[in-house]
Structures are given as C-alpha cells and as structure tokens.
Write a structure and sequence with these properties.
CATH architecture: 3-Layer(aba) Sandwich
CATH class: Alpha Beta
Number of helices: 8
Number of domains: 1
Shape: globular
Structural class: alpha+beta
Oligomer: single chain
Number of strands: 4
CATH topology: NADH Oxidase
Strand order of the largest sheet: 1-2-4-3
Helix content: 25-40%
C-alpha cells in the first residue's frame, strides 16, 4: 500500500496527517462496532446552540437493495468508484433552528464539524473516508422523504483503501498522487484579506529571519 501520510510544515496529530480520501476501496466489510463509534464521534461534535442539525442516511453492502438506492443518489462520476465502498452515507442538514424555525446559518458548518469528527475517528481505526458534494439532492429527497427545510448535502464513502496497483488507470493515478496543500501564508491573514499573518511564514523563511 502507498504511504499517503502528509508532509507537514509544522507538527500536527498523526491521525490528521494520515487522513486521506481514496478513490479505491477494498472488498472488505466494516464492522458494525466501528461504524457505531464513527457516528458516536459525529454525535459529540460542536454545534451552534447545541442544535445538532445533522442526520445521516446509512447503507451497507450487507443490504444490496438499500446500498443501490443510496448509490443512485450520487452523480454518475461518483457512482463509478463509490460502488466499491462497503458503506455509503448521505449527510442531511436541517437548515432551520428547531426552537424558533429561524434560518440556521451555521447548519452546514456544523454538519461539516460532525463529519470531520467521523473522519478522524475512522482514520484512528485505519478506515478511509471519501466525502462528496456530487450528489442528487432532489432524488434523495424523493427516495428518503427528507423533510421540508432539510437537505441532503454530502455523501460519504467509508471502507478500507484498496491497493492502487489493482485500480483502473484513472483511479490509480489519483490514489498514487502526492498530497498537496496551500501554505499557511495563502489562507492565514492579519490586517486584511490577502495579507499573510507573520506566523504564517514558511518554516524556512521564519528560520532565515531569526537572529541569535
């Protein structure tokens, strides 16, 4: 298996540096105990006013009909590779506060926090998660009777990464590619947008500016 651990500029938790999103999934089921812990991690995410505006629709290959139904809510390009994953999930967000029916501007953010918790827990268990925005929300609403003011927002594939050597060329290239990210200087600012914060200098630049 390829090593996809991130080469970070600064120290972070190993579980974060080891997280990555494969396109190839092995033909191996995920234990129910592991799935329960993933959703327990999502359960304890922070949310605005403790609203917890997320819910998840779950399907595993142990129920082929239900798996096929959820798979059909993905765009065709995502169906092509996600069909190999043993577990598929739709992330549902409630866009209004339950207590007063006002718009919840934090709802999508909070779904993201819950899903991030799920991803970290999965990585700690040597599972891999690939999240997708490429879904068919209207189809999901029809198939799953998603209530008014709620919406299917993302999909999640969960499983174990496949050996990239066994993947089709297009997927192999993606899963073997080196992971890259913007440096801190491109998204951590001070004073105005676009002005890098002093602490966001690259490590070698910071070292060059250090005097004894």
């Amino acid at each position: 298996m390829t090593n996809k651990t991130a080469s970070t500029d600064y120290p972070i938790l190993p579980v974060l540096s080891k997280r990555w999103s494969p396109y190839g999934f092995a033909d191996r089921p995920v234990a129910g105990a592991d799935l329960r812990s993933l959703f327990e991690a999502a359960r304890w995410a922070a949310s605005s006013y403790n609203e917890q505006p997320w819910s998840y629709l779950l399907a595993t290959k142990e129920d082929p009909a239900e798996f096929a139904r959820l798979l059909s809510c993905l765009v065709e390009a995502n169906q092509a590779w996600a069909k190999a994953a043993p577990v598929l999930v739709l992330g549902i967000v409630s866009l209004r506060f339950a207590k007063n029916s006002k718009d919840n501007r934090a709802a999508v953010h909070d779904l993201g926090l819950a899903s991030a918790n799920l991803v970290v827990e999965a990585t700690s268990r040597h599972l891999r998660v690939h999240q997708m925005i490429g879904i068919l929300p209207d189809r999901a609403r029809e198939l799953y009777q998603i209530p008014k003011h709620s919406e299917a927002w993302t999909a999640i594939a969960i499983g174990y990464a496949a050996d990239p050597v066994r993947l089709p060329d297009a997927l192999k290239e993606r899963d073997l590619a080196t992971r890259q990210r913007k440096p801190l200087s491109e998204f951590v600012f001070t004073g105005q947008c676009g002005r890098p914060a002093p602490l966001a200098e690259r490590p070698h630049a910071a070292a060059a500016n250090t005097t004894e």
